[in-house]
Amino acid sequence: MGKRMKKFAALFLSVCLLMSVLSINVSAASKSVKLDKSSISMTAGKTYTLKATVTGFSKYTLQWSTSDKSVASVAKGGKITANKAGTAYITVKVKDTNYAAKCKVTVKAKSSGTSTTTTTTAATTKTNTTISNNTDAMSFVKNIKVGWNLGNTLDAIGNGLNAETSWGNPKTTKAMIDTVKKAGFNTIRIPVSWGTHLDSNNNINAEWMARVNEVVDYAIDNGMYVILNTHHEGSWLIPSKDKEKAITTKYTAIWKQIANNFKDYDEHLIFEGMNEPRTEGSAMQWNGGTPDERKVINTLNQAFVDTVRGTGGNNKNRFLMVTPYAASADKNSLKDFVIPNDKNIIVSIHAYSPYWMALNTELKNKSMTTEYENEIKNLFKTLDDTFLSKGIPVIIGEFGFLNKNNETERAEGTKFYLTTAKSYGVPCIWWDNGSTVLAAPNKEGFAILDRKNLTWYYQKIVDAIFSVYKK
For residues 329 and 332, what is the distance between their CA atoms, to the nearest angstrom? Predict the structure, then answer.
């Protein structure tokens, strides 16, 4: 009897220990902090108390903060006071962790009269407008016109919020995006790196998602179109057959979270699945890759479309951009390219043409020539033959002319490029990486906006752009 009792006791202790371990693992996997509202609209002078729900922590301290206390302040416990008209972001964070949640607060001024008016805020525009299933992609793309890239910023490789400035560019501000809008650009492409902001279960860091959301809103609140993508993921997104299963799992996990976060945004938000997918460092990375690599890219494009559509809401009809190998118009990249079977698809191409003036860093070949003009014409003829003539729209997500101390010549090249693009109905997005010099760390001088002083480095180039696309 004594031996049986000892065995039973040992078994009981083992079960308790196992349950304890499982409990710890489940708790660790389910840690989160959430707010009852992701966006609210308030009138100056009013208050609202946000409710935070915390899971997975036995003991914790919540920290509350605001992005602009002159617009909306927040007290301990989540009580918000609306102070003046504007937009602020309230953040709650579990102290000493990366777990956080954010709420956008849109404050309206007090009404000066007794009449009742209806105000449509940016938040209601984003969340209450359904994307119609009646607009085809070719018609939709006509709205895009011309855009600007927020390059080498949220796409900088690193983890934590400091990654945004790790390549030397300043933190993005609403005033910065306002400057882009005021110049006449109606579209902004926001490249974002996600892979370095994941935990071991492929969950995106909440603070990083909130910061991306904040920057997206800067443009959306201006009535601009936004292209949001995955960028600089080449360290893990390697399109080889042996890695296909693993990268597809990670890739779709990322897009499921992005899509769910933005599922209620209207058609002004466009998702671009990948940036320049390729096997970095391979002999064929800029020459179309291999047949197997191109097939993996096709698989990832379809997985991207299926994942976004599966999240419902406005994502059922959202316009999506897919890309061939390396986003290239090279004949090898295009010959095996399969467009997903979906009516709201746009092809994403990057085209720095003519190469010797637009991308090569040697301090020569500074002026447009007949040969260079023909190179640009041939590019758009290829796009027309391959896509446009078949009813498939194209957006050139990156183009530009390197700074070789030749502003006038760059402006002339820009005008010819965009005039040709416009004649084919292809919107183009200028690549701005924040650098004006052909030297480290950015190496390629594509910047046209002085992000610190909110002025334009090269007004002739800006004027050339808007001589083609009138404000």
Answer: 8
207, 233, 398, 444: which one is catalytic? 398
Alpha-carbon torsion 431, 436, 438, 441, what sign? negative
Specify burial of residue 389 (Cβ count, 10 A radius: 0-12, 13-18, 19+).
exposed
Q: Could you confirm whether 293 is annotated as catalytic?
A: no
Give Cβ neighbours of residue 30 (< 8 Å, ≥ 6 apart).
Answer: 55, 56
Asked about 276 being catalytic, the answer comes back as: yes
Query: Tens of pLDDT along 58-115?
Result: 888 898 898 888 889 898 888 898 888 778 888 888 888 878 888 888 887 765 443 3
Number of other CB atoms surrounding residue 68 within 10 Å: 17
CB 322 within 8 A of CB 137: no
Which entry of 164, 207, 267, 276 is annotated as an active-site residue?
A: 276
Give me the pLDDT at residue 126, please. Answer: 58
**pTM for the predicted model, two decimal places:** 0.78
Written as one string, the DSSP assignment of 73-113 is EE-TTSEEEE-SSEEEEEEEEETTSS-EEEEEEEEEPPPSS
298 phi/psi in degrees, rounded to 5: -60, -40
pLDDT in tens, 177-235: 999 999 999 999 999 999 999 999 999 999 999 999 999 999 999 999 999 999 999 99
Residue 455 in tokens: 């002025």
Under DSSP, the state recorded for 306 is H
The helix/strand/coil state of 361 is: coil
Dist CA 443 CA 449 (whole Å): 17
Q: Describe the strand order of the beta sheet including 86-94 as a list of residue ranges.
A: 39-43, 100-108, 86-94, 62-66
Q: In the chain, how long is the greatest CA-to-CA distance?
A: 100
d(CA 44, CA 47): 9
Q: 325 with 277: CB under 8 angstroms?
A: yes
Q: Compute CA 327 distance to the chain's CA centroid, rounded to the nearest angstrom.
A: 16
Q: List, in order, residues 6 or more apart from 9 with CB less than 8 Å away.
A: none
